[in-house]
Design brief:
4 copies of one chain form a homotetramer. Chain A is built from 10 helices and no strands. By secondary structure, chain A is mostly helical. In chain A, helix 5 crosses helix 9 (142-162) and helix 9 packs antiparallel against helix 10 (170-184). The first copy, chain A, is elongated and about 60 Å long. The N and C termini of chain A lie far apart (49 Å). Chains in contact: A-B, C-D. The structure holds a DNA duplex.
Chain lengths: 187, 187, 187, 187
DNA sequence: TATGAATGAGGCTTCATTCAT
DNA sequence: GATGAATGAAGCCTCATTCAT
């Protein structure tokens, strides 16, 4: 792993554990096993560091979901697949998930970066738009739907991370997806 | 308004705008129109200040909801009332809402305070528990249900704060409550 | 002496001895016998500190010269008086003199401050202007004359500070003033 | 131009614009179009770099003046020639001139280098010494005379660099040299 | 000779908190 | 209770310099 990656990994862990402002850059370099200056050789500022972490996670998420969005035709099947992938990704990358949860809406991520990464999810957004027009989803603004879906995922993820065994429980999964789907679906 | 209240009001505004760590106590005193030392007469530390603000907001929320929880008998009616009250409170107290949203889950609120304020919502929690047992709500753990409800409210609030006029739209409200209700309801 | 003055005095000494950039603020506070923070309580930045020192010296110089400029009528007498006062001030305030010499033209003094202090010497500038128009001084631009006079004073001061005893030598003083005067005078 | 020369040229420009301490070696390498390490192949330290620049300028000045000092016999003619050469050199090499002005007396130039370059002007110094003994110049210490002459040149140069067109004005030149000459001459 | 990633000491400044008035 | 000057620990970042390639 390159020193740059060591820094990003260490920072990710410390940020979610202590928060951005409570994590000195000195602690990051130390945890990464590099010198103070090295951090600033790779990232101009502490803000650029967190921005870069955010960007990388968002893009890796997008890349993971891409096949599911492209492959299927039946709407509910797509949503089910995406839903599964998201929650499994959370269970496998709890730190990255927590990072998005904690910093995704904070002012620490620059507007610029946020915009650039938002585009990455336009495919999914279009899907929702179509579902609304087709009458499959409730007649609500797309933004509301997107918000409701992601907040549902957040709540589910939070719970699952503390009860990982439940993910093996087929009935639990069925009920949880049912809740997810009926939050928006008309039938 | 007492100096103590001036400080709390100023702090609330600055905290949600800049974040806790990016808000110097000096800025709070200045915005409140008091001297640096005065803040520390009323609150031993900066943490005690944010804790106190949190507590006050939480309790005011509880007091507001109490009559609705006590009065009615029909479940869906209670949930509708509570849902309405919560969103109207958000629209009338956007700063307080944002404060809860930003700091409610952060490590800045002491475990102690969080516990004490949690109890305040045990009535509502019991209601949900009964709904599950009665089969009105999906057979999911109570904690999951509570999480899904509050995250639904968060998403709705966020959207409404940027589109206040929609609250007057009866159809929108109906659809949004429908979404809220069917997130958990079995029918 | 107030802590503020202690800081200014200590800074003056260190700045001329080591230069601005080679003088850590920590060294200033230490020499002044105050805490690090105290320096920044009185001066927002290190630059504001040097600016303030510059301003104070310039204004004290102006105040010292004011009577000489106001009192006399005969031109050469005024110039002689001012010349004497300047050199005696230098001998009595060698640190302040060196400060002006070293930082007067440096980029460390803000344009703003430089302007504000320049006005302080407009009286003397007018005197020179009149002398040129009257034919007492060579027909050169005022700015050139001012520059030549002050550079003459600088050279003289530098030498005198290393040979203080010569100031008591009447013949030396006569010759040096002669040089000063004939740099600009036509006769 | 060799990389070594590129570095020296870039450094000269940046030093006079921003000052020595405000010019990172990284900025120099960048402006010179070379890598960080390259600078330190040619100059052991940043100080050695500025020292070398100083030395080169001083020696080029000496070489330029040498013929004028050697050729003539009449004193005033020599001084006039030297005076002309100095100011024309300034007009043609404003950056080098500013460099000498800014760093010539600063502590950045090592005592060693300063001594070595001083010797270069001993010829001129002797000339002044003779003029004093001959009664052509005022009976002042040689050092004072040297100081007055060079400060006169500084003041003149500073002005000329901002009013280059005046150098074509014969009357202006006559008056300015008159001032220069009568600063020291007895008649 | 040339490169540029890596180093780590050190500088400026911020800020929660104290305390004498 | 109220004030605000004073404190000093700690944070972010800069930068001259080294060294493996």
């Amino acid at each position: 792993m390159s020193k740059r990656d060591q820094i990003m990994t260490a920072a990710l862990g410390l940020f979610i554990e202590n928060g951005f402002d409570k994590t000195p850059t000195s602690a990051i370099s130390k945890a990464a096993g590099v010198a103070t200056g090295t951090l600033f050789h790779h990232f101009k500022t502490k803000e650029e560091l967190i921005d870069t972490i955010y960007e990388e996670i968002k893009f890796s998420l997008r890349d993971m979901l891409a096949p599911a969005l492209a492959g299927q035709t039946e709407l509910k099947a797509i949503f089910h697949d995406v839903w599964i992938m998201m929650l499994e990704w959370t269970l496998e990358n709890p730190e990255k998930y927590r990072f998005l949860h904690q910093f995704g809406e904070s002012a620490l991520i620059s507007a610029n970066t946020r915009e650039r990464t938002q585009e990455a999810f336009s495919d999914f957004c279009n899907l929702v738009e179509n579902a609304i027009e087709a009458g499959t989803f409730r007649p609500l603004p797309v933004d509301v739907c997107m918000g409701l879906m992601s907040s549902h995922l957040y709540a589910s993820s939070n719970y699952l991370l503390e009860h990982k065994e439940l993910w093996q429980d087929a009935e639990f999964r069925k009920q949880l997806f049912g809740s997810y789907w009926h939050t928006l679906a008309t039938a």
